[in-house]
Amino acid sequence: MRKAMLSALAALLSSFAASAYEVQGAFGVRDFGAKGCKVAAVVVSDTNRFTCGSGTVACLSPDSRRILAPYLASETGRGECHDIAAVADIPLDNPQAAVSFVLCRVGDVFCGTNVSSVLCYASLIWRGRLRVFLDVNYEMFGWRDWDPVSRKVVGEGLYRCRFGESTRALSPSAISDYLASQGMRGFNPTKERGDRCIVQTKPQWRGGAFYGFVTSSCSQPVLFRCSDGETLEFLGVVPEIAEYECQLAVCGEAFYALMRGAKGDNFWISSDGGRTWKASGSLPDGRQRPQLAVFRGKVLVGYSVPDEKPSRVRNGRNNFHLLEGEGGDLSAYREILHLRDPIGVVYPDLVEADGQMHLLWSNSARFPDFVRWGAVQGKDQVLHAKLDL
Q1: How far apart (Å, rounded) are the C-alpha atoms in residues 52 and 46?
Q2: How far apart are CA 381 and CA 100, in angstroms?
Q3: Is residue 68 within 8 Å of residue 56, measured between CB atoms?
Q4: For residues 218 and 187, is the Cβ–Cβ distance under 8 A?
Q5: From 25, 54, 325, 336, which residue has the greatest number of CB atoms within 10 Å?
Q6: φ and ψ at 16, to 5 degrees?
Q7: How far does Cα 258 stand from its chain's mean position?
Q8: How far is CA 162 from CA 222, 236, 245, in A?
Q9: If you write DSSP's letter for every residue of 234-295 in order, what string do you get?
Q10: 66 and 91 Cβ atoms separated by less than 8 Å
Q11: Strands (DSSP E) along 55-115, which ranges?
């Protein structure tokens, strides 16, 4: 009897310990031995409601007091899921108090069509609201607006693109037609069903319009300008095929591009507003989203390196390197941050707020041994850290 009671007590204490660990993992501060500056991170995705969270595309709120971070989530799946596009509302003065809201989910109706999958690729503030770029069912490319005051969805629509004399729905065929008109070859925007038309970039404001790139799983990045919030005017092409995302930064008169999965140079610069581009070298490619930003008049270049050890996640997704500099000579850039974590530094996302840079990413802390598509994906939860650069 005494032995049975002790066993029951041990089991009860064990359950309490597991619960306490989960709470600490979700809301405690974790220090990283980062080179360049101290990085202390807290989880900002909803780990009580969602079983995964990753891929933020964040921006600063209209009142400049919060980071609004759309991300992908699920209430049942693990690893990587396209069930829910959520928004994390993250107070700058207390990131641990972040609250998540559902922006779009499987089962919703989007522009008259039932949603069976959803991806979120970019965001910006448009007329006081958060506008999130969405890919619905791998064939509808549009946006949903979220009001940061009422915290509700307040509008939606589909993107158009314009080039030459033509204005049409944004689609893989439109991208293909434009690339062909510019003399490009070797592209295939429908190479992968789930990555046909990617607007995954930090929109850059310039002269009353925002600029960004449209790419796919296999195409040259197309630079666009948008002044009405829904029509992307194609301006030029970076003449190198990217696999997935291409990031943009505008510093002074120079446009910078950094792409993922390039076969040749992945760092390019334009001096004529993005109409023509010059190759400016290559950085290591860990096959995850690169980052570009402008901070204190300098260009920040973020990338990951393959084969860094130790790692318990997909190759190249356990580290993040951040350089600072300007111009096309990469050798003149200096490293200001090297963040590494065996359980993941997945899809880093830079945001400037309150005169400082902030970093969001995900890891596999909740389900460290869960394998999907042949690897631990590191997309369990979203973390936030303020960078003391």
Answers
A1: 9
A2: 12
A3: no
A4: yes
A5: 54
A6: -65, -40
A7: 14
A8: 12, 12, 21
A9: EEEE-SS-BSS-EEEEEETTEEEEEESS-SS--EEEESSTTSS-EE-------SS--EEEEE
A10: yes
A11: 59-60, 66-74, 84-91, 99-105, 109-110, 113-114
What are the Cα distances from residue 161, in Å, to 151, 222, 229, 274, 304? 29, 11, 11, 17, 32
β-pair partners for 293: 300
- What is the C-alpha to C-alpha distance for residues 326 and 119, in angstroms, rounded to an integer? 33
The helix or strand, by DSSP H or E, that contains position 352, with its residue range, turns out to be strand 346-353
| pLDDT recorded at residue 155 | 98
Q: Where are the beta strands (DSSP E) in 115-202?
A: 118-126, 129-136, 140-147, 152-158, 160-163, 166-169
Q: In the chain, how many H helices and how many E strands?
A: 2, 30
The predicted pLDDT at position 201 comes to 83
pLDDT on residue 28: 54
Residue ranges in the chain whose pLDDT is less than 50: 1-27
DSSP reduced 3-state for 172? helix
Q: For strand 39-43 and strand 52-54, is the pairing parallel, antiparallel, or unpaired? A: unpaired
Q: 10 Å Cβ neighbour count for 107?
A: 10
Quickly list H helices, the chain.
2-27, 172-181
Q: Residue type for 25, please?
A: G
Q: What gap in Å lies between CA 46 and CA 43, rounded to an integer?
A: 8
User: Buried b vs exposed e over 142-154: b needs ≥16 C-beta within 10 Å?
Assistant: bbbbbebeeeebe
Q: Which two tokens stand for residue 161?
A: 């693109």
* Eight-class DSSP state of 95: G
Polymer length of the chain: 389
Coil/strand/helix, residue 346: strand
Among 93, 122, 59, 42, CA closest to 352: 59
The DSSP H or E segment spanning 54 is: strand 52-54
* CB atoms inside a 10 Å sphere around CB 245: 24
How far apart CA 389 and CA 382 sit, in angstroms, is: 21
Would you state the pLDDT for residue 345? 96
